Amino acid sequence: MRPLAGKILNSFILPHLLAAVHRGEKHNHNCALFATLKTRTMSLFKRRKQRAVDSAHLPASLQDETLRFKVIIDSIEDGVVLIDSEGIIQLMNPGAGTICGWAPDEAEGIDVHAVMRLVNEKSELIDESDNPLLQIFSAGEAVRGDDVFLLTRENVLVPITLNVSPLKDDTGKVTAAVAVMSNVSQKRAQEKQRADFISTASHEMRTPVAAIEGYLALALNEKVSTIDNRARNYLEKAHTSTQHLGQLFQDLLTSAKAEDGRLTSHPTVVELGEFLEQLTDDLRLVAERKSLTMEYVTGNSGGAINATRQSAGEHVIRPLYYVYVDADRLREVITNLFDNAVKYTPEGKISVSLTGNEQVAQCSIRDTGPGFPAHWDPKLRIPRGQVVAAASIVSPKY
Length: 398
What we know:
The chain is α+β, with helices and mostly antiparallel strands. The chain folds into four domains: 2-57; 68-183, PAS domain (Beta-Lactamase, 2-Layer Sandwich), CATH 3.30.450; 189-259, Orthogonal Bundle (Helix Hairpins), CATH 1.10.287; 268-367, Heat Shock Protein 90, CATH 3.30.565.10. It has 13 helices and twelve strands. It has helices at 2-21, 28-56, 60-63, 65-75, 94-100, 104-107, 112-115, 132-139, 185-220, 229-259, 272-288, 327-343, 384-391; strands at 79-84, 89-92, 117-119, 143-151, 157-168, 174-183, 268-271, 293-298, 305-306, 322-325, 349-356, 361-367. The chain has a six-stranded antiparallel beta sheet, sandwiched between helices. A four-stranded mixed beta sheet has the order 9-8-11-12, covered by helices on one side. A hairpin with a 4-residue loop joins strand 1 (79-84) and strand 2 (89-92). Helix 11 (272-288) packs parallel to helix 12 (327-343). The longest helix has 36 residues, at 185-220.
């Protein structure tokens, strides 16, 4: 058809158009009209000719738009499912069939909840309010599920990531949805192996470190051994470094537990002011070793009280903040923030403050370190090693 259309254009239409263009001045209006028509017609056929050339480089199965769409969808490794407003599967690619355990031609026309059974890790169906396949039609916005499990046709539990996007009509009504899912079984298995390795390594390494720390503590005990001041100084540094190494192993173990959901919390009622006061006293030595001053401030802005432990005879009345929290986890968080403040503050002061009201208590740690330049994106996440390198080039004016 395209060669025939070109012949008709060249042998019949264009000669008449060219003749009309050259008929004379009294036909200027018609000539301009025909010239415009000629230009648009030539442009149209040039575009069609270029499409034919481009399509000639594609396989025959891709030259038809319908077949092209099917080939693309079927070649996607992830699962793709098209769901109508009634919850019926209208299209399923082989990737989705592999994950769900259904042949695509069998699943099409069936209720999506019978094919894609979303459950928790105990194989219990998740609540309708948490089901992305139902949320999409009520929320009208894309819904993502990262910690989702799918029960296959053979009742095999498969961890997946699920993204559901709405398809809307001109009025904004959701008429269909596209669900894209990925099987993350291999990824979860690798994460578990890594967590098991960190957990085992942390336990194994903590044993000799604890022994070294114990022997150093005995060596520093004046009732057990006698050493000169110079040797004591070296042993104290070794003892401190050993304690820090043991804490690093504990942090690794805590991180591994947090990643695989084994980290437990045991909250109790804690008076936050007394808790922070004791903690800052314990951390004060770390700051003083770097010649940094440290203060603990409590109270709301405008009525802040320096609650650093006062000398004998002085009394400080401060507000009481009772919170329901796991004291061990809170101590880890504050200690990590404090260690970072000490590490990146070459000189000056570190302040631990506590404010709040009847609904919320807020603890903050501030330092006089250089910080990051103002033009850096505050949302930028930088690996720790790069932060250390960056700290050496940041101007103190920031």
